[in-house]
């Protein structure tokens, strides 16, 4: 499994966690916000990995 696939798995896990916590505690709860911030970081990393090395989009 490559790094991008592992990252996607982690992203999906965070999405599920965030949804569960948000349903229980609300979207603005401390834990929801922390998970959301971690999810943002993981999505940014994934986008960096998936971008072509030379910076061209296609």
TrEMBL record:
InterPro entries in the record: HLH_DNA-bd_sf, Spo0E-like, Spo0E-like_sf
Record protein name field: Spo0E like sporulation regulatory protein
Organism lineage: Bacteria, Bacillati, Bacillota, Bacilli, Bacillales
